[in-house]
Fold this sequence. Notes:
alpha/beta, seven-stranded mixed β-sheet, six-stranded mixed β-sheet, disordered N terminus, binds zinc ion
Amino acid sequence: MTARYAAPLLTAFALSAMTPQLGAQQRAFYQQTEYKGQEIGKLTGDVYYARMDDYVSVFMVTSEGIVLVEPIGTEFATWLKAEMGRRFQVPVKYVIYSHSHWDHASGGAVYADTARFIGHENLLKNIAMPPASTPLPANMRGQDKNGDGRISPDEAQGNLKTMFSLYDANHDGFLSGAEIARGPIEYVKAPDLTYTERLNINLGGKRVEIVSRPTGHADDNTLVRFVDGTNVLFASDWITVHRLPFGPISPDEIPGVRAVEAMDFEYFVCSHGKLGKKADVTASIRYREELRDAVARAIAAGETLQQAHASVLMENYKDWEFYDQQRLQNVAGTYRALTAK
Ligand SMILES: [Zn+2]
């Protein structure tokens, strides 16, 4: 991590107060951290990053147009489209989805007048509406107070309440089992160009590689490598920069992260938090390996999961983001994976 990337990102504008609400994915729904504001910054060559709070997208500018990864949301896409038009005077020609989750893939319609939308073919399956007969998920049936098999606005609690309109795909004012199972993806525009293994696009004499890397987090997971004169790799969610990985991770994921490390790139951008370089991917592997080894030692010493939670402190990583929020889950996932073998 060079000093260039260490500056806190507090310089961005407080745009939420200035921009009218377009669509219903309010900024407050998105993961909130110390990173605040909307901004564009140069990474290298003609590749830029664009940030909305904790969320980061990347785009490349060519004489023939822009290649963008992740629309993030309607509000951000509206702001970014205007900013890119003002600064670069070329249209967005491609929007590449890293995966189908609402907080990365919403808002693409903003670019529909000029762009094609690229996603892994599994993304189509993931955003398809399940059969109408799909029952309410068991953990949400309790919200259906009148027992009519659907959730009305006055019954909805928690996530279903705050994100009601993102689930209500047919806008009938009720959430069916199918709509809930599909997820809060009403503002995810389907890709019109899908691929299975790998896709290259060339624009303005520059190449962008789109590579499938299914993970436990997303079976439609896509890596994007900006090649000519830039060497920037974008990987969403699963390889984090100076931040503990999310949730109950397994050592089984290490070879996948190693395969990313082996790719040719210098700059590394996760979809969240800090901007990185290849060394940050290496550090993520080191964390995962040290965690695996520490948990293995705890298991060998006969420790229960509860005891391993107390003994596997990963103290070298105390200054990483989400240390307090994710360490126990990381230990638990690793403990379960190792004891299942
Ligand atoms: Zn995700």
